[in-house]
């Protein structure tokens, strides 16, 4: 994560802030997500049955890919100097574009779309995020993600 002063953030609006490292979404992670959420649909967890679908194998849950944004953002988003904590504030827009096959690698691209001081010590950072799939022209998902940071006021 890149650390900046709050007053520097406005100048970064519209710029790509960072690209995460590639991360493999393997079958073990997919199965663990299925266990955690109770979503055991065959297309995610039954490799034999999924191999007979048009996809030819198991797919990561869309919500698994979405949940990995927190991990992908760790090395590719901004931290305000003096920030005490960051809070996931939700999404303005989210689209699942292409499925992530088990064993595929993904990465996140983060563009700062907006920055606003909501009140003293409270800042809302809006990111346009694209999750790329290695070797695929279409992304897994695109989203407008809102992140609230609480920082000490100077």
Please outline the helices and strands.
Layout: E1 2-4, H1 6-9, E2 16-19, E3 23-25, H2 27-37, H3 42-45, H4 47-50, H5 62-67, H6 69-73, E4 78-80, E5 83-96, E6 104-119, E7 122-133, E8 141-151
Parallel strand pairs: 1-4
Antiparallel strand pairs: 2-6, 3-6, 5-8, 6-7, 7-8
User: Portion of residues in helices?
Assistant: 10-25%
What gyration radius follows from the Cα positions, in whole Å? Answer: 17 Å
**CATH level 4 superfamily:** Hotdog Thioesterase
Which CATH class is shown? Alpha Beta
Anisotropy-based shape: elongated
Report the span from N to C terminus.
22 Å
Return the CATH topology: Thiol Ester Dehydrase, Chain A
Instruction: State which percent range the strand residues make up.
Output: 35-45%
The poorly predicted ranges are none
Helix vs. strand class: alpha+beta
User: Please, what is the average pLDDT?
Assistant: 95
Largest sheet: 6 strands, antiparallel
The ordered H/E elements are: EHEEHHHHHEEEEE
- Count of individual domains: 1
Q: From the 3D coordinates, which CATH architecture would you assign? A: Roll
Number of contiguous helices: 6
- Count of DSSP strands: 8
